[in-house]
Amino acid sequence: GAGVSQSPSNKVTEKGKDVELRCDPISGHTALYWYRQSLGQGLEFLIYFQGNSAPDKSGLPSDRFSAERTGGSVSTLTIQRTQQEDSAVYLCASSSYRQGTQYFGPGTRLLVL
Amino acid sequence: KQEVTQIPAALSVPEGENLVLNCSFTDSAIYNLQWFRQDPGKGLTSLLLIQSSQREQTSGRLNASLDKSSGRSTLYIAASQPGDSATYLCAVLGETSGSRLTFGEGTQLTVNP
Fold first, then answer.
1. Which of A59, A101, A107 faces B43 most closely, judged by CB atoms?
2. Which positions of chain A have pLDDT values less than 70?
């Protein structure tokens, strides 16, 4: 596609429910990143996928967070048993190689009530 | 641990002024530095990427410089326009930070007509 797309654009959920966030990277980009942007915390790295290599999960805040990337393209970020502190904008980015320009999607705004 | 600081946090200027945004980072072992803009409620738009071996990059009215040894970068915006109003973020890709970008808190720019 022309750019990185994310869905849904907004998600409201109740505390304790699971949510899935989707990212479609730019076609041909082998690197895919998830970040979180919350008030007072700035932008935080969550996870990085590069081709078929094992993902860098070092930024995931707890074991309630997981992500997968199927077929080297689409990625899904799953948050289990959501908490109110999970409320944030979740941003996905992709790049053609690890040290290349990272292009960001519009984000998914998650609100946990 | 890499830390990125942006000064000022907010800036308001009249249309037509030239302005400079500052970014500093604590660990000079970086691969590159990237400048983004973020409009309210939107994702990040990449403006410029400077590789560690480069001193500056230019795109239209924007010029970014990098002094890796002193841990500083500046974004120069010439002849500012109201459409330039946004939050500007700088981010570094460190040699020892894996694949993550480390972001500053941003400078919120308002250009008044």
1. A107
2. 1
